[in-house]
Amino acid sequence: MPFKTFAAQFTVIAAFTASLVSASANEEVRFTSEAVKLSPFREKLAKQRGEAFPPPQGTPLIGFLSRPEGDGPFPAIVVMHGCGGLGSRLKNDVAGRFASQGYVVLVVDSFQTRQMKSTCQNTQRDGLFTMSDRVYDAYGALDFLSAKPFVDVRRVALMGFSSGGVTALEATKVEGDEQLMNRKFKAAVAYYPTCSPSEGDATVPTLIMVGELDDWGPPAKCQERLTHLSGKGPEIRLVVYPGAFHDFDVPTAKPGTVYFGHPLQYSASATAQAAKDVDGFLREELQN
Question: Of 85, 153, 161, 260, which is least packed with CB atoms within 10 Å of its CB?
Fold first, then answer.
């Protein structure tokens, strides 16, 4: 390779790396999960019974905020981790990639302040921490972003990985907890979730990405959900990647990795295609 060509390529790579680093630097922030008020019916019933309910309070949470350079306002993404907790990949690599594309990214840690490490085993203690808790975490993050002048709160997507993907679907399903919230997400992205096959429409455009060989989040369950759509709601787009397993975008998931009885395996091809799919989806739905 001629020296000038090599030098030019090195300069481009260095410039890209520098921009990614500056955009991916994240700040630890604190906020609370959404404090959901009682419905008017519940309030009326409580008054009739003479019951006193304390004002609703959210759970204190920690998150990691990454943002592009400039004043904005920028579109934003709330990111929810899986059952194993928050690791550096979402906090740094995933957040950095999207921040470099012009998104504000808030990665939510649902476990640290609750002194939890994992919910993968479905123990009795895990059962006390419900999917609604995580949905309220997501909407608490949305409220936090809404107060930031550099965020366009009309263009915020909810993105989740594995059980975080389940959260994204639960938070945006018709007749779910979303109807209790004042602010709404604009779109939802779910990486290899376990779909609820009996669910129907979503309240926002949704992208679901799963591996063909995933036995933790089987694509058949997601495909069955699509059969229950009314045809009148926003599009739910399902992409199934041939030959891919759960955690197909996690480089540390080497062949032969088994986690709680489920095979995990990185796929460079599925990762690259998923990146194109989600980038196109977000550009379309958040107009970035």
Answer: 260
